[in-house]
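Researcher: We are triaging several targets before committing to wet-lab work. For this one, the compound of interest is 2-acetamido-2-deoxy-beta-D-glucopyranose. I'm pasting the protein sequence and the ligand SMILES. What I need is the predicted three-dimensional arrangement of the protein with the ligand bound, expressed as structure tokens, so it can go straight into our comparison scripts without reformatting.
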Amino acid sequence: MKNTTQILQWLLVVVFLVVVANTTSRRIEAKTLVTMANLLGPDLVMNVHCKSKDDDLGPHSVPYKVANYSFRFEPNLWETTQFWCRFLWTGGDHYFDIYIDTRDALKCNEICTWKIYTDGPCMYDRYKEEYSLCHDWNPPK
Ligand SMILES: *[C@@H]1O[C@H](CO)[C@@H](O)[C@H](O)[C@H]1NC(C)=O
């Protein structure tokens, strides 16, 4: 009986340490960066406004090709972090889920790089070394 209690106490300590270590390493190392470039077309300004459940990153205007719009965040431990953006330009108005933890965390390895085309966004594939992970816009609500 005494042994069982000791084993249980040990288990609790181990679980606690694993949770703390996981949280700490994510906090320190796992600052995820999402960055995107406007490939809509020459002379088209990309107006982008991203949000998550907790954050409103505000509207930003991104010129064609010459600049990136980037933001950093800390994915939560429950792998439910999600950011979505509205993309607005002369001739287009779409939403896209720019970060879905279960879809992107492993693919990006903490830097998610996107090119935004009129047909939809394409993410950089670090294995193929090209922007080949293309997605459709979110369906209209
Ligand atoms: C935008 O980000 C990509 C990927 O990090 C980089 O290759 C490119 O040079 C950046 N463009 C500008 C204009 O900073």
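Researcher: Any quick observations?
Model: The chain has a mean pLDDT of 90.
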